[in-house]
Amino acid sequence: MSGFESKLAEMGVTLPDAPAPAANYVPYVQVGDTLYVSGQISAGADGFITGKLGDDMSVEDGAAAARTCAISLLAQVKAACGGDLDRLVRVVKLTGFVNSTAEFGDQPKVVNGASDFLAEALGDAGRHSRSAVSAASLPFGVAVEIEGIFQIK
């Protein structure tokens, strides 16, 4: 088990198989040592995590949904690295989309669910730049979608 995966195991997290794309795109593209991972939607063992922040979902539930996106992002990174997550050098940038009402303004607190998870799991390699924006709706009614840019070796 890799160093990063050992830390994930300590946290009680096992990376799932990388989710398949839901439409006509690839899950990731590598250019040199940069890996661009397509948006990962909030989903758990029971399926999609749906809801609209500012309406029927709390910030805490949104942050938990964002955490699932981060887990899927790492699963994609692992797949792109041939199963060796230790090829990950660092998380460079996340862009988080939060399904929220026009009045909701806590998108950063929601996306913190992903950022906090990555920092805990990966240490300094998990600290990243970020955007957190509102979306009027997201695919399948999910609460959160997050895409990422990663440096790998």
From TrEMBL:
InterPro entries linked: Endoribo_LPSP/chorism_mut-like (IPR013813), RutC-like_sf (IPR035959)
Signal peptide limits: none
Residues in Endoribonuclease L-PSP/chorismate mutase-like domain copies: 5-140
Any single Pfam family the record assigns to this protein: YjgF_endoribonc
Domain of life: Bacteria
Protein name: RidA family protein
